[in-house]
Amino acid sequence: MSTAPLLDVRRLRAGHGASVVLEDLSFGMGVEAVGIVGRNGMGKTTLCDTLVGFLPVTDGEILLGGEDVSGRAPEKIAGAGIAYVPQGRRLFPSLTVDEHLAMLAGRTRGKRWTPEAVYDLFPRLAQRKRHGGAALSGGEQQMLAVGRALLLNGRLIVMDEPSEGLAPTIVDVLVDAVHRLVDEGVAVLVVEQNLRAAVRMAPRQLVMVSGRIEAEFTGDELLTRPDLQRRYLGVGADDGAHR
Amino acid sequence: MTAPPRQLPAAATKEWRARLRRLPVLAVAIPVAAAALWVAFLAEGTPAGPATDNPGKFLVTALDAVTFAGLLFVAASGFTLIFGLMRTVNMAHGSLFLLAAYIAIRTQEAMVGRSRNIEPAHVGMLDWLVPMLVGAGVAAVLGLLIQQLFLQWTEGQELRQALMTLALTVVLADQMLREFGGLAQTMVWPGAVSHFFSVAGERYALTRVFILGVAVLVGVLLWLWLTRTSMGMVIRAGVDDRGMVRALGINIRLVFALTFLVGSFLTGVGGVLGASFAGAAPGTDGSWLLNALIVVIVGGLGSLKGAAAGSLLYGVVVAFSPVYLPSDYSYYAIIMTFALLALVLAVRPNGLFGRPA
User: Fold this and answer.
1) What is the phi/psi pair of residue A46, to 5°?
2) Mean pLDDT, rounded, for B10-32
3) d(Cα B188, Cα A100) in Å, to the nearest integer?
4) pLDDT score, position B8
């Protein structure tokens, strides 16, 4: 499935100030959807923040299409093609739905993803153009966060807990969106607590333990083997799997 | 040894909390109602007298309030714009204000061709507008230099930035004293607006209405810029969440630089208006830094709406206190400013439209 690696993370070491969270973390992915699962506090969000340049890299490399982007400023990494859908969505409370997209519209001319294309992908957003970001439902907020990231027209989208707090029908919409993106050549790296949602989005699942990638499974393996779930995901994941 | 703390029943605690929450609202509503009642009916023995007896004086005072608010708004809008996006308290704000005023005065003198006793009749509209643009332009460039040389390396270190810009005000104040002298100077209004007209039997200066016009124009342009252009949307997004703006591939440094340029330009426009209205002299820098601070503390740092509301409230207090306090106490009018600050902060600790920093 994976061709030449789009993203190649090598022996990454990073964290918050003096406390090292990621230690010797390595993985690679092509133009595909890859999930990262693991218990709370294993460093999943830290990994996302490090990939997009919010946190500094102490050691190791982040190769995007063969080019090392580690240590660059967030805007440079975004320019190189990594878009971010952060945990909690981080929409701008001062802006309306349309303004979230309009502020980036200038650089999307002639590209695949324009504000119009985002409205085509998520018609519900089109009905809420004038609403403030904070007045949206959780699902609409997530659609807007994804749409905003798409306007970068990047090569990889990093999503941190996209299904958090969403109704099952909205998760369906997100799962469809992820599949569509991969079909169109955009890679998706998705961090999830909800194993069921993670597996539907990405067939390939990496398990994170104490700041490194400990193992790799297919989604089906993880879903059907309670022993793996207990070992790597803790009790909470059982609930997620059987919900 | 120590008695265990008495536990209030949950319901009673809740009720008390609700009452406590209403307390600040009451604390504001009562003085505001009392002040309105005083001005309307009771203000015997004040320079103006009760508004019901002397509606002309009341109207003129209200006009004074609104027009002074216009000047305050122009002077504070750049300050609040810069703070909102960059969390930089630019203590050199007053210096930019005064420098723009001095430069504009010098430019006007050069354009009119004489250096003292300029009469408004000799001043065409261009002899005011061009110096205004030159003065504000110099303030804009200096502001950008300050940001590029000192502030962009200390991003997020608010105390250092405040101290550095404070140091700059001392340096700039001395240099301006050397260059422009210690005497008060005035920018001369163009003859076209330098008239009086009659409002309810009172003479009123057209220049004050002109100030208000400029303020409204600045406010509308600023609002259009912030709401209708993608740069404005980026600035508002940056006020909310700078990190996320960067993650969208936007070079926030460029946005910062542009904001500082525009904010300093607006400060310069305020300086020229202020110099035309009340003159420029050593010390004007400090008093206008204070004015801007009061406006943004009342209105909430970083909000354009807040700057407008803060200017209006401050303008009302400044205009009404001296004429509606009993004549023997007019001297204490300045204290009312602090009463305004205390009242607003009691109800809204972040200012009227402010959000926690």
Assistant:
1) -60, -40
2) 74
3) 45
4) 53
**Looking at the 3D structure of chain A, how many domains does it have?**
1
Name the residue among B317, B201, B80, B217 with its Cα closest to residue B209: B217
Domain of A227 in residue numbering reads as 7-92+140-242
Residue with tokens 């980026």: B234
Q: What is the pLDDT of residues A36-54, one digit of tens each?
A: 999 888 899 999 999 999 9
Q: Chain B: nearest CA to A243, how far in angstroms? A: 33
b/e sequence A186-200, b meaning 16+ C-beta within 10 Å: bbbbbbbbbbbbbbb
Report chain A's C-alpha Rg in angstroms: 17
Q: Tens digit of pLDDT for each residue in B274-293?
A: 999 999 999 899 999 999 99
Residue B239 · residue B302 · CB < 8 Å: yes
Q: Chain B: residue nearest A52 by CA?
A: B247
CATH of the domain at A81: 3.40.50.300
Regions of chain A where pLDDT drops below 50? 1-2, 236-243
Adjacent-strand bridge partners of B199 = B202
Distance, in Å, from the CA atom of B168 to the CA atom of B95, rounded to the nearest integer, reads 8
Residue A1 lies in a domain: no
- Which chain B residues contact residue A152 at CB under 8 A? 248-249
Among candidates B292, B327, B248, which has minimal Cα distance to B93? B292
- Chain A residues whose CB is inside 8 A of the B239 CB are 94
Find the angle CA(B335)-CA(B340)-CA(B346) to the nearest 5 degrees.
Answer: 125
Task: Please report whether residue A170 resides in a domain.
Answer: yes
Please state, in angstroms and rounded to a whole number, the distance separating the CA atoms of residues B45 and B39: 12
| Distances in whole angstroms, Cα of residue B25 to Cα of each of A65, A217, B30, B199, B346 | 59, 60, 9, 36, 8
Give CA–CA dist B31/B21, Å, rounded: 17
- Of A50, A77, A94, which to mutate for an interface test with B (greatest number of B Cβ within 10 Å)? A94
